[in-house]
Here is the input.
Amino acid sequence: MAWEQLSMNRLEIPLKEVYSFMGYKDREADEQTRKTAEYLLRESAQFLRPQFKYVIVDGTVDLEANKLTLIGEKGPITFDAGKIICRQLRGAQKFAVFVATVGNGYFQWTDAVKRRDDMFQTYAMDCVGSQIVESVADYMETVLQKEIDPSGFKRTNRFSPGYCGWHVSAQPALFSLFPEKNPCGIELTDSCLMLPMKSVSGVIGIGPEVRYLPYTCGICDKKDCYKRRI
Here is the structure.
């Protein structure tokens, strides 16, 4: 198990990815967009205390039934993870169940920006926050890889409920694999959304035969996914 709270200056947050969240995927962001995003990224350090946590558990993947079984302290839990995710997790010997978040300071930051009554800043803040949590999860993966390197293990991409056919209703069961109810202070709503909203959860396969794909949109048929690059 690993837990870490990060200062913002330890994260690599590419502004190009922020602009991509804002819709600038095939063209350069204009000057106003760049200045606003840069300002909000600097400001975010006053409010956010990003953190992550993961636990490594045993489990199995049933490729015929498209089911993922993870074995926590309370026993096995089986997920209908779907064909796409189960295929990508095949060969894993263990699984890292994770959460990552920008921290509860996001609520205060949201209030501060909204008081300016500037819809563009509010929109840009949402996009900056989305990239920050992605960067926290990226950092977490580097920590995980360092932990498993001595075993000669590799890792898969990270996969989250709500994407690639894995229903978001799996969140409570996934959270139950942590020793505490609200890992990293993240709460689940009745509709299985995470609070703060700029949080991610999921699973990563671990083993000597698994593979990491640098580009994964090609394996998924969800056309309206915000992460889609093509």
User: Anything to note?
Assistant: The beta strands are 2-5, 51-62, 67-72, 75-79, 94-101, 154-159, 187-188, 194-195, 199-207. Helices lie at 15-21, 31-44, 83-89, 105-114, 119-148, 171-175. Residues 29 and 35 are 10 Å apart (CA to CA).
